[in-house]
Amino acid sequence: MDIRPAAAADSQAIFQLYLDVATTPGGLARLKSEINQDYVNGFLQRSLASGLALVAEAANGAIVGELHASSPGIYCFSHVLTDLTVAVSPQHQKQGIARALFTQFFAELDSRMPHIKRVELIARESNSHALAFYESLGFVKEGRLEGRIKNPDGSVEADIPMAWQRTMHEYPASD
């Protein structure tokens, strides 16, 4: 498995990955019918221009994972990456791909984007596995957005905003 920066040329493969991930209930916030090439091109362009986008590429060249986040684009949030999304194909989950994507993501932040002090994401309250995973990476729950998520069966649930902050994770100064 190779973790590398995403490129605009990866757009079609990322689109196929998102269609695959959307077949799993709760795998993405969007339904499969809501995923289209314009959606993928949009977040990829924003992430490449003002944030980070990474892909996990299998030995056969298939993209089996993707992670992206971007800047909101105004000065007061210039230290923030938001809308972080991670997707791993259902056939490749539970193999450490998401953790490898995040490890590279944080390494890229350290080397290329030291001005980024905060990274934000939102996870649905019923996705306890994702919430625990994000907490294991240093993300902290920052509240609840009650009734924000509408599920396909018509029920609603809370979105949980989470953030990672560099100040909480900086290494102590050496003597």
When the domains are counted, the total is 1
Task: Kindly state the number of beta strands.
Answer: 8
Q: Give the helix tally.
A: 4
Low-confidence stretches: 171-175
Helix content: 25-40%
Compute the gyration radius: what is it? 16 Å
Estimated share of beta-strand residues: 25-35%
**Shape, please?**
globular
Order of helices and strands: EHHEEEHEHEEE
- Stated plainly, the CATH topology is called Aminopeptidase
CATH class: Alpha Beta
Task: Walk me through the structure.
It is a single chain. This protein has a single domain, classed as Gcn5-related N-acetyltransferase (GNAT) (Aminopeptidase). Helix 1 crosses helix 2 (37-50). Strands 1, 2, 3, 4, 5, 6, 7 and 8 form an 8-stranded mixed β-sheet that branches. It has helices spanning 11-21, 37-50, 97-112, 128-136; strands at 2-5, 51-57, 63-70, 80-88, 118-124, 140-141, 145-150, 156-165. It has 175 residues and is of the alpha+beta class.
